[in-house]
## 1
Amino acid sequence: MEYPLNIPLNTRRLLLNNNKITSLPALQLGFLSDLVYLDCQNNRIRELMDYTFIGVFKLIYLDLSSNNLTSISPFSFSVLSNLVQLNLSNNPHLLSIDIYTFANTSSLRYLDLRNTGLQTMDHDVLHHLEVLQTLYLSGNPWNCNCSFLDFAIHLLVSNMDYPGTLLYLSTSGKSELQRSEAPY
């Protein structure tokens, strides 16, 4: 299914979840300048191109969970300086995130990267997220290497809340960030 074309231009909340949509066209989205809430979960979106969200400057909430994302271009979110909550969870083919992906999302407070295919992450990915409060990372097949170690150290010294997330390093060289409930 393709992205619907006749969406009223003054739409503020758009629910496109569970529609088998394969792409988000920047041109059509660009006309929705009042959009603050976009739910695209459980579709078939494979990639986000640079400037996909070029006209939706007011967007605060974006849910792209449970899609088929394989790549996110470095400047996909570049105009989303008001974005507060981003959910990219349950995209098992998403193997990497460029260090510039979140460069202009300076208002981002909640980022969900659970159950993706991420194996490592450069700590510079989070460098621009100065107000990030909650980061979910569990369910990823993390590989223990120097880049990942820098990332883990960055998490440990940050003021960010990563609920119940613990770092486990094994002798096999694999590491995993998992959710673990507090005993009390």
Note: The chain is about 10% helix and 15% strand.
## 2
Amino acid sequence: DNDRVRADAAHFLGQTRSERAKPLLQTLADDPDPVVREVAREALESLPT
């Protein structure tokens, strides 16, 4: 289902640890699905600062 795909995408974007993933992860952090939001926020936290 689409929510799962978005959550998986957020997870794998976080695994890249690339700053280029940040804009998409920020968008996913506002997703209607709470699981997607949580995974995206965790991925954002894992990015280098």
Note: The two ends are 32 Å apart (CA to CA).
## 3
Amino acid sequence: MSRVVFILALLLLTGCEQYQQVKSGRNEVGSFSVTTEAPIWNSVPSGHSPGSLPTWTVDGVTLNSLSFVSGIKDGSPLVTVHDKSKYPVFHSDMLPNEIAELVQSTVARLFTATISRTGELKPLTISGQPGFELEFEFVTDDEVIRRAFVGGTVKNGELQVVVFQAPRMHYFEKDFGHARDLIVSAKLP
């Protein structure tokens, strides 16, 4: 009987994880160290974040999310999931366009979506490392067109990527400037 009560209490406690406001200043998220100017972001409990990634949001994950994909080693998928065979894996010798396709494929599978438009792959420097940036759009099952911005680099053979996504109408443009500033100014060890 006491074992059942303990398990029920544990289940209730895990369901009570709260969003936490991200404080202004320097914050450590995965391998990234990022600086926020104003406390507009909230840290999402891992059970509520896409792919169990460290994720921040302004308005809730259904309206926007900033996910930090860090320290991905050769042969690993970008997300933590039960069935890893359904997700493509990173290889340390991938070219930027291959990494961009890997990210898009992962986002499409994670959100049960179809990629509808891909922007131009451009160079981006993150923490002094040569990297890339990409914007793309995807359509989810509920027919919402979402837009994503990705900034990433490979450092010491490990993939480091940040993905900001939100519905194309209103929410993407509303927080894109803040998200891009965080990505561009991110520091890696």
Note: Residues 21-185 form a domain with the Protein Transport Mog1p; Chain A fold (CATH 3.40.1000.10).
## 4
Amino acid sequence: MGIGNRAVTDADDRLRGNNSINNVVAGTGVGDELKGYEGNDTLFGYAGNDTLDGGSDHDILMGGAGRDTLTGGTGSDIFRFVTANEGIDTITDFTSGTDKIEVVSPNFGNLSVGTLDLDRFLSTDATQTNANSVFLYDNGTGLLRFDRDGYGNAAPVQIASLIGNRNLNYSDIQIVAA
């Protein structure tokens, strides 16, 4: 069923976009299932443990609060995180060099807008040598964490887990303004 732009407001909804247009699909309940199909879709899970599937083409997926499962599908997709404390999302089909992880600057240490700087991306076996905000990634486990104060007192916060293809580079992370 073609739905255009729609939002759901109660628990455990299933909402699917049209097969040929660009949809904005949003859930606000608990445990929503959102699917975009064809078109350049934008899916917002908001609260709850949601399942978002962009389908084909170039999609933007934002799980929001909860432990969400995000699948971009074919095409270059953006997995957007507004804060580091939204919950740990599982990204099922990230493709390095094609897909992007996008974070909002003020909520991620006021990092410079654009592609993440190389010195702000560390593998988990690297040693943090300053108090800068950094992303920590483990290619073996697929765990992506954010550390807002480097070697300071705050512990890193896990924001995502990549399953399947676990390749991730600093250039796959984009910083955007609020």
Note: Residues 1-16 have pLDDT under 50 and may be disordered.
